Amino acid sequence: MLPIPVCSYIKAQVFWQAAGLETEPFFYYICRCFYPQKNKIVFEVITMKKKSELQNTEQESANSSKSVPLKIKTDQFPIVGIGASAGGLEALEQFFVNTPADSGMAFVVIQHLDPNHKGIMRELLQRITEMQVFTAIDRMKIKPDCVYIIPPNKSMSILNGALHLFDPVETRGLRLPVDFFFRSLADDRNEQSIGIILSGMGSDGSMGLRAIKGKSGMVLVQDPASAKFDSMPRSAMDAVQVDIIAPATELPAKLIAALKMPVRVNARQELEKDTSALEKIIILLRLQTGNDFSQYKKNTVYRRIERRMGIHQIDRIASYVRYLQENPAEVEILFKELLIGVTSFFRDTAVWEHLRNIVIPAMVERLPIGYVIRVWIPGCSTGEEAYSLAMAFKEATEKTNLNKNIILQIFATDLDSAAIEKARKGIYPANIVADVSSAQLTRFFVKADEQYRVNAPIREMVVFAPQNVTKDPPFTKLDILSCRNLLIYLDADLQKKILALFHYSLNQQGILILGSAETNGSQTDLFSVIDSKLRIYQRSGSLKADDMFEFPNSFSHPRPGLPGNSKPAKVTENLQSLTDQLLLQQFSPASVLITSQGDLLYITGSTGKYLEPAAGKANMNIFAMAREGLRSELPNVFRKAMQNFEKVYLHNIRIEGEGRTWLTDVTIQQIEKPLQLNGKILIVFNDMPDIVPAASKPGKGKVHHIALQAELELELQSVKELLQSTREEMQTSQEELKSTNEELQSTNEELQSTNEELTTSKEEMQSLNEELH
Fold this sequence. Notes:
The chain is an alpha/beta fold. It has 24 helices and 25 strands. The chain is elongated and about 120 Å long.
């Protein structure tokens, strides 16, 4: 005879199966034992729901003329990945309470779970949603209108709409299950992938959202102000351009509304037909951002515009053009969307292994000692690829053991100024551990709180700058050029021009690295293949006459020295220009134009009497080139001239050189106008009558002594002025040092205060961590 509770449990299971539902867990058995009346009501409600599903289906077909439901083809329904930490239960409940049971979407919840405790998330969520909630098992096929929960101590991926479970590689420390699933979701569902980040600690999910964005998927984030823990939402907002930011209670409605729009209105067909509206959008982008997207691939532009229209519930392209005109912020968001800044450290590991083990060692071996390898990375986004190349170079050169003192100089550029600012800082979230090995983290990064910063030696190898590769001048004399996942967004004509530009920029035998989805296209005669699978090429061949010379803006003019250039226009010379040249060459005083640091920019006339090249390495600085006599006087008057735009004079400066002595007047002035020369310094030399040695004029001893005395008095006066100026500068420096010391003391006090606040915050976090455990 079975005990009564067990009998009740068996009856409950039989009743449940009779209702056409799957056998439910022990949770419902407990409800049956202790809350029989309530459980009976639950059974009745669910049974009624199950019976009414057929009626709902019939009603949907009957009401199809009244409203269009969000139902998509069975194999094309959206799959929504939801990332949250262990403290995100409240946000998940708020989300699913407001999610209708017939949304047509499937939801996969990825949480940070304790690997040593059995999860009850399925039971908790089943109480608040009418959708079926499952704990994922290996190879489980995903169905719409269902919720799937990651089990504890597992990593989960998706392939062809089926879930696959993995034992986590990390035995301890930081695990990134959200990033792991989001990346596979992006690869599996492409533009139908949707990623949502809810309340949570850390930065897990931000790299995965980048992958979803790169596939034209949708990204939603809980408003940090409404999140109990805002670290994950804020990290996601820093990583990508988020489509929708809202409280967890509002996210389902906004998501459904955004997905309904493309079904209700075929926006793509309207975009393709209304070319005028598309051109207007491109004009608005060019006016506000200065960048021309007319030669971007149309499908890429269409997808981004379509997505923004769906988010704002705009069903006509003409209405969206109007919305852009009235909302400049939307133009900026669309611009960010079109840039598609998808990147990560050591992306496509096979490429980096080939560079580290074959390409870089071979290059270093054939280069001379002390050579500077020049690298250009256009479209660098937030800098991960540039730093990856610097780290790979360090590792590769150490393996060669050649000790050639080869230097790597990387120029990394991007259209997005905000991305360039992030790249310059070199600060990345903790989830880069998924792409960077522990040895590389230890060697090339400095950990601060929950972030990693690229160390100084690696940062010094990279120069970041904003640049538009289609109109700004390129970097030249390059040994390596890495342009990955940029060309795929450009049309064929622009790809051809840029590849020709890359050929022009590279040295002979220079290396070109393209993305996994890119090739050198029709320009096969310009590059030979090193590895076709990894998209690594080498410069070869020569440019044709029409390869580069129709480039927009700055590239629209023929380049000098290349074949096919048109004949240069004849210079029209007149009497005035010839006279000006004659006056400058024969009658104007010798002068030099220099920078505020003393570097020579332009020389007029013969300056050999006043300047001479210094011995050793070439140095075109006036302080190094000034002859004896001028060298001691020049720094003092130079500092005076830098204080304002008035002229400063040096009279009767005795300059010695080549066995002779000259007396010279020197005029120094900082230039105010024209603006192109503002801040530059002009130095003009005027010769005085030569000093004749005493031995050449016998009987004139007394006159000579008088002249010598006058010269010495003049020199003494000059020394006194120099001494007075030095004293004034010393006093000024002392005052500045005192002020700096006070600022440092104030900063030290602020740092101490900040340190105390951080200590307090750390203690609070430890207390909170203990409470969470």
